[in-house]
Design brief:
The chain is of the alpha/beta class. Helices cover 37% and strands 23% of the residues. The chain folds into two domains: 30 residues; 123 residues, no CATH class. Strands 2-1-3-4-5-6-7 form a seven-stranded mixed beta sheet, with helices on both faces. Strand 3 and strand 4 form a beta hairpin.
Length: 158
């Protein structure tokens, strides 16, 4: 009888621990994976670093290597202002994402669904995702909205 109670007690404890572990695991579930296509030239190393940042942040990224002329044509197609252009362009759920935008900023755009064409981090600011340099402090930069009429506004400052 004692042995049976002990076995039941052990099973009950295991169920509690297992259930707690399951609940803990569910609470730490990564955000929804979102498909994204990134267009870049094969020679660009920082583009690959940005893609790695997006993948580590839970995005399902498909990289498309295209010639530089085609990349500039894609930027023209999306009407990305010249002042905001960078080394790679991504498409995600109807938005264009230009340059080294942090993953959390992209997720905010996808969550809030603003009436914009897309967003950009102009240039290649030191310290932005994919542009980190060990031992170098990040430079401040803006994440800008590209409105449908071509106007720009600051979404956030980093």
């Amino acid at each position: 009888m004692k042995r049976r109670r002990r076995q039941i007690g052990i099973l009950a404890l295991a169920a509690l621990i297992g259930g707690g572990a399951l609940l803990y695991g569910l609470s730490r579930t990564p955000p929804e994976a979102v498909a994204m296509t990134v267009y870049m030239t094969p020679e660009c190393g920082c583009c690959g670093d940005w893609v790695a940042h997006m993948k580590q942040s839970g995005f399902m990224v498909t990289s498309r290597y295209i010639p530089e002329a085609d990349l500039w044509g894609l930027k023209d197609y999306h009407e990305i202002p010249h002042s905001t252009r960078s080394c790679h362009t991504a498409e995600v759920r109807g938005y264009v994402v230009e340059g080294h935008i942090p993953a959390d900023a992209v997720r905010r755009i996808l969550r809030d669904r603003p009436e914009i064409r897309g967003a950009a981090v102009p240039g290649m600011p030191l310290g932005s995702p994919g542009m980190e340099v060990p031992g170098q402090p990040p430079h401040p930069y803006d994440v800008v909205a590209i409105h449908r009429d071509g106007e720009l506004s600051v979404l956030e400052r980093r």
